[in-house]
TrEMBL record:
Positions of transmembrane segments: 29-46
Subcellular location, record wording: Cell membrane
Membrane topology: Single-pass membrane protein; Single-pass type II membrane protein
Name of the protein in question: Biopolymer transport protein ExbD
PANTHER family: BIOPOLYMER TRANSPORT PROTEIN EXBD-RELATED, EXBD MEMBRANE COMPONENT OF PMF-DRIVEN MACROMOLECULE IMPORT SYSTEM
Length: 183
């Protein structure tokens, strides 16, 4: 603590105040600081991380066991192409025979891609095998992919996959959206 010194008199009879020291004992202030830090650490609620569940395919079985590749009928699947500038396209056609007229554009609203997925599932031959194939382009953003994955959760689509887009689909997408081909 700061020390207080008393006045001293000298021989002339005048009483002079002695200059006070400017040194301040910082120990109590440091103790108070640590007490405040401890208080706020114990009373603060930490934010919980937001985690999105992601279904991963099972590990591949040993090669000795022959595995059947199920054929997915076109009515049991829908392909979603994520474009640039928050555009989204979809089709239910053979990817090698796709033309610009077969590529449909929609948006990320409730009446957009969500309705498209639900309607496609209703039209499917076997709704249990209905599969959504997500194909992001180089123009799409991470936010677009997260929005489509959110739609998978909302529409309760348990069968979906993210795959690379083939060259024919890229060309049809560019033709439909009016983007010139990058060579």
């Amino acid at each position: 603590m700061a020390q207080i010194e008393e006045k001293q008199s000298n021989d002339s009879g005048k009483v002079r105040a002695k200059k006070q020291s400017t040194a301040v004992d910082m120990t109590p202030l440091a103790d108070l600081g640590f007490l405040l830090i401890t208080f706020f650490m114990f009373t603060t609620t930490f934010s919980k991380p937001n985690v999105m569940s992601l279904n991963m395919p099972p590990k591949t079985p040993p090669k000795e066991i022959p595995q059947e590749t199920p054929e997915i009928h076109l009515s049991n699947s829908i392909s979603i192409i994520l474009g640039g500038e928050n555009t989204i396209f979809w089709h239910q056609e053979d990817k090698t025979k796709l033309v610009a007229d077969g590529l449909n554009q929609t948006d990320y609203t409730k009446e957009g891609i969500r309705k498209v997925i639900i309607d496609a599932r209703k039209r499917a031959r076997d709704a249990d095998k209905f599969t959504v194939i997500i194909k992001p382009t180089d123009d799409s953003t991470y936010e677009n992919l997260v929005n489509v994955l959110d739609e998978m959760e909302i529409t309760e689509s348990s069968r979906y996959g993210i795959v690379d887009i083939i060259e024919n689909e890229v060309n049809v997408y560019r033709e439909k959206s009016g983007i010139s081909s990058k060579n």
